[in-house]
Write a structure and sequence with these properties.
By secondary structure, the chain is α/β, with parallel strands linked by helices. The protein has 2 domains: 10-242, Type I PLP-dependent aspartate aminotransferase-like (Major domain) (Aspartate Aminotransferase, domain 2), CATH 3.40.640.10; 247-378, Aspartate Aminotransferase, domain 1, CATH 3.90.1150.10. It has 10 helices and 12 strands. It has helices at residues 10-31, 38-51, 64-72, 89-97, 142-152, 204-213, 235-272, 301-310, 340-348, 360-378, and strands spanning 55-59, 80-83, 101-104, 127-131, 157-159, 167-168, 171-172, 179-183, 197-201, 287-288, 294-297, 349-352. The strands form 4 sheets. The protein has a 4-stranded mixed β-sheet with strand order 1-9-8-5. Helix 3 packs across helix 4 (89-97). The longest helix has 38 residues, at 235-272. 48% of the residues are buried.
């Protein structure tokens, strides 16, 4: 086996930011305010400005952020939240944990995001919110989703764990719905060195509620007008994110270039050999993507993954089992065939290495290995 290519190269990123990161962390170590220190407020101000909304609330992670958003909207037992089955489990998990029911809607076959044309028929008298996921780095179609939501008086929560830095019709992800929620897990487009997340809104009342919920429902010390949770963002993680923000615009630009280059080169190969079994991702004309994952579709996925692994090329599957087929969601009573587009995608999607420091040389090696295997399969 040859030396493996990193799937995400956080070491290269750290080397370019080492002094800034150390300086930011040292300031926290010097002032000692490890919980809700000044870096948290500074980060919130900068992120709100970046997204273009009034409020940013730093939180403990991108899973708690979804729960905090729904708690602020008073979603609970017996309610329903419409979402996609093709996502990481936390999207549906937090709905269920609050005692509500996730109501799944199938996805668009090109973007893998929720299909707006299928949302309205899923709305009932118990529906309390719509929660689209901006998967793989590009936003869902929020104009269409927001129009449906407005018609039925529903809030929209964008699960933007994979799309922070992307744009939809000129607006930033996290600023295109009632509440935007993102994750700063280390592998995300903007990643901390541990868990972290943030919530975004223009609604003053919701912002106040979410700020209180993240500190045990507290509006002032030892006074709790609502039930909350421990959902605070650590100061050291805020410091790391502040350092990383200095390079983030460049990283977003690089991700877009690298993703576009992958697609261009794959399409060139398909022009030469139409028998190749690969479908590159599609980017809507009104979207930009941060390519949190660069995800293609192949038929013989396990075989292709094994051959690439042997050649030192890592891959991943996001995600192999749709939520409605997960044992934890058996209560939803949706069997195989309920959401055929999501199920077909789950059987075929495969993510290739992508990060801002990926060189053309390494990218060419990845594609050479992939195309060589696909050509063998086609012969």
């Amino acid at each position: 086996m040859t030396e493996a290519i990193p799937f995400i190269d956080l070491k290269a990123q750290y080397k370019s930011l080492e002094q800034d990161i150390k300086s930011r962390i040292n300031k926290v170590l010097e002032h000692g305010q490890y919980i809700m220190g000044p870096e948290v407020a500074e980060l919130e101000e900068k992120l709100a400005s970046y997204v273009g909304v009034k409020h940013c609330i730093g939180v403990s992670n991108g899973t708690d952020s979804l729960m905090i958003a729904m708690m602020a909207l008073d979603i609970g037992h017996g309610d329903e939240v419409i979402t996609t089955p093709f996502t990481f489990i936390s999207t549906g998990e937090m709905i269920a944990l609050l005692g509500a029911k996730p109501v799944f809607v199938d996805i668009d076959p090109c973007t893998y995001n929720i299909d707006p044309s299928k949302i309205e028929t899923a709305i009932t008298s118990r529906t309390k919110a719509i929660m689209p996921v901006s998967l793989y780095g590009q936003c869902a179609d929020f104009d269409a989703i927001n129009s449906i939501a407005e018609k039925h008086g529903l809030p929209v929560i964008e699960d933007a764990a994979q799309s922070f830095g992307a744009s939809y019709k000129g607006r930033r992800s996290c600023g295109v719905s009632t509440i935007g929620s993102t994750s700063f897990f280390p592998s995300k487009p903007l990643g901390a060195y541990g868990d972290g997340g943030a919530l975004f809104t223009n609604d003053d009342t919701l912002a106040k509620a979410m700020r209180e919920i993240r500190v045990h429902g507290q509006d002032k010390r030892y006074h709790h007008p609502r039930i909350g949770m421990n959902g605070r963002l650590d100061t050291i993680q805020a410091a790391v994110l502040l350092a990383k923000l200095e390079r983030f615009d460049w990283e977003v630009e690089q991700r877009a270039k690298i993703g576009a280059r992958y697609t261009e080169l794959i399409k060139e190969q398909l022009t030469k050999n139409s028998q190749l079994d690969i479908v590159p991702p599609e980017l809507e004309t009104y979207n930009t993507s941060v390519y949190a994952q660069y995800t293609v579709r192949v038929k013989n996925r396990e075989q292709v993954q094994k051959k690439l692994k042997d050649a030192g090329v890592p891959t991943a599957v996001h995600y192999p089992i749709p939520l409605h087929l997960q044992p934890a969601f058996a209560f939803a009573k949706r069997a195989i065939g309920a959401f055929p587009i999501a199920e077909a995608a789950a059987n075929e999607v495969m993510s290739l290495p992508i990060h801002p420091d990926l060189t053309n040389e390494t990218q060419d090696k990845i594609l050479d290995c992939l195309i060589s295997q696909l050509e063998l399969d086609a012969s």
